[in-house]
Task: inverse folding
């Protein structure tokens, strides 16, 4: 078989993987996550949550999506039109791009009949890209989503929106630093920036060498900083309705609002997926993690536990005052992250050199 034709088929397979992963993520952000969060928050606060549209309220997300889709698209006359319209997309797309380096399983498989038909096996991997700077790619691309929020707040020409955008930029600058120290600790321990290799490193000791046990401080720093990056409670200062009406999203409605809304849920899923891969062992689990067909389900189960924890935190922890949020990062999180990084480096130097 002509190598060019084989490369075309491989490219087509990759495009199908991208389409499937993007579709599943968008459906999860638009349909599953809003329903699950509203149901859980309802139960946590002794309410029923959505229960009128469809059996047990299961069709409520479809009704909300249709409402958003058919709302009249208004562009206020005082906004910077093109930046205002591009901002939701700038927030959504980088989050989707980061999922390209998240591996769902260890084992690849050969496309059925590909070797017999093409003379060369087509290998399908449970990831889109396995680049050697996966951590760096994830940190760089993931941070770009924040610019959509900043631009949305600035382009709205609304004081509340601008304040929301400024708060977002301040949070990003503050919490990126402790987040970086947590990621560096992971790289120091595993000796690689490939996310697949980091997960595989955690397969030691029967699949229980999870970095959350070896680097608990780094995990807490990563988790808290990621909550601030995603704007999840108790760090949802950019859109505090009791102070800024709606913050950066005040002038948005219809599908533009839905894109911001979906981007927040996608960011939450990304946070949980990265935490699972870097600290919770990914697909690794005693005995079960060795069964190839179960590996994606183990990964997804851990992501769901993380998502449950994030929703639980929303109902249990009150929102911080903004000056305390900033002080917490600069006076506590960053020094703790640097101290943890230095101790990790010192212990590794003593043990291995």
Result:
């Amino acid at each position: 078989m002509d190598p060019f034709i084989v490369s075309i088929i491989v490219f087509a397979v990759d495009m199908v993987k991208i389409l499937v992963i993007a579709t599943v993520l968008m459906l999860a952000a638009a349909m599953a996550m809003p329903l699950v969060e509203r149901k859980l928050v309802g139960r946590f606060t002794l309410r029923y949550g959505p229960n009128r549209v469809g059996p047990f309220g299961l069709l409520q997300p479809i009704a909300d999506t249709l409402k958003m889709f058919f709302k009249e698209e208004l562009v206020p006359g005082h906004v910077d039109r093109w930046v205002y319209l591009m901002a939701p997309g700038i927030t959504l797309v980088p989050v989707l791009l980061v999922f390209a380096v998240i591996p769902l399983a260890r084992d690849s498989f050969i496309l059925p009949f590909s070797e017999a038909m093409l003379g060369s096996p087509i290998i399908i991997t449970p990831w889109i890209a396995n680049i050697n700077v996966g951590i760096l790619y994830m940190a760089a691309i993931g941070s770009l989503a924040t610019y959509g929020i900043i631009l949305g707040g600035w382009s709205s020409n609304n004081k509340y929106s601008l304040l929301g955008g400024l708060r977002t930029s301040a949070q990003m600058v503050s919490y990126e630093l402790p987040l970086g120290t947590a990621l560096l600790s992971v790289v120091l321990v595993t000796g690689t920036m490939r996310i697949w290799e980091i997960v595989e490193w955690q397969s030691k000791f029967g699949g229980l060498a999870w970095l959350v046990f070896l680097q608990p401080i780094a995990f807490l720093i990563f988790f808290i900083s990621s909550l601030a990056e995603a704007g999840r409670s108790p760090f949802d200062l950019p859109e505090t309705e009791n102070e800024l009406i709606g913050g950066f999203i005040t002038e948005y409605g219809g599908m533009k609002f839905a894109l911001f809304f979906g981007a927040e849920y996608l960011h939450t899923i990304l946070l949980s997926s990265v935490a699972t891969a870097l600290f919770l062992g990914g697909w690794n689990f005693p005995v079960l993690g060795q069964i190839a067909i179960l590996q994606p389900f183990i990964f997804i189960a851990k992501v769901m536990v993380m998502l449950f924890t994030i929703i639980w935190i929303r109902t249990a922890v009150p929102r911080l005052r903004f000056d305390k949020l900033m002080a917490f990062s600069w006076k506590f999180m960053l020094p703790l992250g640097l101290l943890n990084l230095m101790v990790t480096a010192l212990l590794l130097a003593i043990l291995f050199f």
